[in-house]
Amino acid sequence: MKSVLITGANRGLGLGMVKYLTKHNKAENIFATCRTTSEELKNVAQEYKNLHILHLDVKNTTNYVDLSPQISKVMGTQGLNLLINNAGISTKFTKLNLVKAEQLLENLTVNTIAPIMLTKALIPLLKQAAELNKDKPVSAYRAAVINMSSVLGSIAQNDQGGFYPYRCSKAALNAATKSMSIDLKKDQILVASMHPGWVKTDMGGKNAPLDVETSVSGIFETVGKLGEADSGKFLQYDGTELPW
Ligand SMILES: NC(=O)c1ccc[n+]([C@@H]2O[C@H](COP(=O)([O-])OP(=O)(O)OC[C@H]3O[C@@H](n4cnc5c(N)ncnc54)[C@H](OP(=O)(O)O)[C@@H]3O)[C@@H](O)[C@H]2O)c1
């Protein structure tokens, strides 16, 4: 892959993805976006010159226009192969009698609106990569969007209730994945929703069974195998297909 952009790359799974891609030399250029650069991300950038840190609060959709020129400055006319909409939030205490409208709105803004609007903003670069890599089949090596979803966004697998802000925002993100896969099919751009597993991060907590490294290597192994027939699917890090 020539280029990957990952949002929310300063900690958690986003940082894990950056570390994996640099360590295993999986991408020629990596664009890591974050609100504040963590020491860990800075250290990786010092070691790997193909890691480019871009500042982005995904809530500021008006700033998205600044991204493409920064990517093109590095990539020239090669576009962007892979966009990973990873930045996300999860409001904790969200039983029906406690949930607040602001929590619903905040989760929807970061988990749903941002991935849709960022994908929209980066379509020209994704198209450029898809066009330039005509010789390759539809895949992440050509042009793809991976939306970091969650099994908590699965309506079919919801047997616990609650989590209104997070569940609704990820279910809506899944709906967006499906629409994007249909709308971008003609441009040969693959789109899929990905559940990373329950992972030990600030969001997942320390009781999570998976470590970041296991989840991330599974995610990239799965993403690397995706083809045209997988566009519009909801997949788990290990490749298992999940019900909507
Ligand atoms: N961990 C799990 O078990 C699990 C399970 C299912 C799905 N997921 C999904 O996987 C993704 C990554 O989760 P994680 O576990 O790595 O979570 P995390 O450790 O809490 O990290 C969240 C990341 O999102 C960024 N972010 C939040 N709001 C942002 C904003 N407005 N603008 C830019 N960046 C923002 C954070 O940046 P700041 O440092 O600036 O806040 C941070 O980099 C999320 O979409 C999450 O829903 C995680």
From TrEMBL:
SUPFAM superfamilies: NAD(P)-binding Rossmann-fold domains (SSF51735). GO terms for cellular component: cytoplasm. GO terms for molecular function: carbonyl reductase (NADPH) activity. Pfam families: adh_short. Keywords: NADP, Oxidoreductase. Belongs to the short-chain dehydrogenases/reductases (SDR) family. This is Jg1021 protein. It comes from Pararge aegeria aegeria.
